[in-house]
Design brief:
Elements (H helix, E strand, L loop, with lengths): L3 H10 L11 H16 L5 H26 L9 H11 L7 H17 L4 H7 L2 H26 L1
Helix pairs in contact: 1-3, 2-4, 2-5, 3-4, 3-7, 4-5, 4-7, 5-7, 6-7
């Protein structure tokens, strides 16, 4: 039987309904994050965006840890709070983006998150629990942000 804190942790871990949508919950979580970013994340000052990311990392780590315990498996597919962290970290260097640039950031992050090039895969394998769930997406966001910067420079 799940108590309030377990249900709350699952709500955070799955970003409410997004982790429960059929087919590719990580993509749904990323899409929710990129759609929300122009209103909830990008208008903030850079220091506040960093603070928000640190809070998402801390709360997401707790929620992902609880979700792993409740679901009885490592990095359950319905846990998508890590996509929120990764997607917003991809967008961190930018105060505002045009719709095409947001779409490019979404696609670039999803590519890095799915392909998991080194060191993303290493982080996923070596860091256990909720912290590993969160950090592999944070690491995937770094090359995605760099590629987005390059994309913007070319357009």
């Amino acid at each position: 039987m799940q108590g309030f804190f377990d249900r709350f942790a699952l709500f955070i871990a799955t970003l409410g309904p997004f982790g429960h949508l059929p087919k590719a919950p990580g993509t749904w979580g990323s899409l929710a994050a990129v759609v929300a970013a122009p209103w909830l994340f990008m208008p903030l000052s850079f220091p506040l965006r960093v603070l928000v990311l640190l809070l998402v990392l801390a709360i997401g780590t707790w929620a992902a840890n609880r979700a792993e315990a409740l679901y009885g498996r490592k990095d359950p597919g319905s846990v998508v709070v890590d996509e929120l962290l990764g997607q917003w970290l991809t967008l961190l260097p930018f105060a505002a983006l045009a719709p095409l640039e947001l779409a490019a950031g979404f696609v670039l992050f999803r590519i890095m998150d799915i392909l998991k090039p080194w060191p993303v895969r290493a982080v996923e394998r070596r860091i256990p629990g909720g912290l590993g769930v969160m950090l592999d997406d944070a690491v995937a966001a770094i090359p995605a942000a760099g590629l987005l910067w390059f994309f913007i420079a070319l357009t």
